[in-house]
Amino acid sequence: TTPKEPAVLRQNILDTTAAILACGIDPKKCFLFRQSLVPEHAELAWILGCLTNVPRLLRLPQWKMKCASQNNEGTVGLLTYPVLQAADILLYKSTHVPVGEDQVLHLELAQDIAQHFNKKYGEFFPVPKAILSEL
What are the φ and ψ backbone dihedral angles of 43, each rounded to 5 degrees? Predict the structure, then answer.
């Protein structure tokens, strides 16, 4: 949600990929891809954004905290990021999503969006359930 220098962004992508592989993810069993190369993520985010009301996004704690840290000049990208997260989840018709406590409200937004979409257009998206890790 914050602009990056292109060279830094490219290096971050490589570093993240290396870290994922170093954690033991087997690329023969898992698909690794750059989300930004899959236009359906942004397309679905747009559609879901048209079904999501702004007051709901303004109530999310992450928006309030980050906006306050940016002198109350948060960007549209920051505000709508949870809708993009919902699109990321729903695009693959995920039924279960591993989340940390700090992302539970974002997953609840994804659940609400799925239910709203299904009510309006017919059963299409599963309503994803949270998998909370126990530390």
Answer: -65, -45
